[in-house]
């Protein structure tokens, strides 16, 4: 090896291609992908996300995080022959965007020999998301951006699909970045008690709510993307035309800037919240914040406003 190459700190043989600044390690491609699989396995064990014979629905949108998660879980599953994976994709009915993602999700499932279940807003709610956006314009019943209301509906669709296929858990590809952004956003929105509900594994709230797990919650988004790239996994990179979470984008940029200057700061935020979560949960209980019995979203009512709106639209 020439002088200007760095050797992988793990295998001490192959050439490093990635420097993980928060751990100070240089990694080769093989040790990098293994480290992602091992970290995910460790997160699953730490939060006791699966039982050995669970049927796990994996939310696969077709984006880099979700297809990477599907590939990593397929690896993890090899050691648990009694566990079963099923991919679930939600077709929101967004013209010119969702079709490509559906195809990519299907291709990845086929490659991994994982069953694929597709549910659509149209069959579940009676309308495509494009139609809903038009109907909801001028409707002041719920003050949500299209992106935020789609998120709530997608969550509901995923739960319905997971329940239908008899899944014990529903895995989503939220990364460390998503989690720290959400923490910051909840603070910035004054919804700080919601932090209690956004856990790596959700509580058993209602028999109709499949417990959600986030096996990537301790993996930076940059590394899930790199994982897809190194393993040559196909994913959709076009952004959704309704994506418009201005505040989240600001939170993302701020966190990325801080992470660059202070490697590991996202982990620190995540771990700080883990430490104080019991106290937040206690406060939330006192304030009467519970979960919507329909969708599991935090609400002070029995049924959240979005679910009320859905009933009203039918
Ligand atoms: Zn190596
Ligand atoms: Zn609800």
Structure write-up:
It contains eleven helices and nine strands. With 314 residues, it is an alpha/beta fold. Strands 5-4-3-6-7 form a five-stranded parallel beta sheet, with helices on both faces. A two-stranded antiparallel sheet has the order 1-2. It has a two-stranded antiparallel sheet with strand order 8-9. Strand 4, helix 3 (98-112) and strand 5 form a beta-alpha-beta unit. The protein is globular and about 65 Å long. Residues 8, 10-11, 14, 27-28, 30-31 line the site of one zinc ion.
Task: Jot down its keywords.
alpha/beta, two-stranded antiparallel ribbon, 314 residues, binds zinc ion
Order of helices and strands: EEHEHEHEHHHEHEHHHEEH
Order of strands side by side in the largest beta sheet? 5-4-3-6-7
Helix content class: 40-55%
Helix/strand/pairing class, anyone?
alpha/beta
Say which molecules are bound, naming each kind only once: zinc ion
What low-confidence regions span 5 or more consecutive residues with pLDDT below 50? none
Largest sheet: 5 strands, parallel
Percentage beta strand = 5-15%
Strands, count: 9
Number of distinct helices: 11
> So what's the overall shape?
globular
Work out the radius of gyration. Answer: 20 Å
The N- to C-terminal Cα distance equals 67 Å
Average the pLDDT over all residues and give the rounded result.
Answer: 90
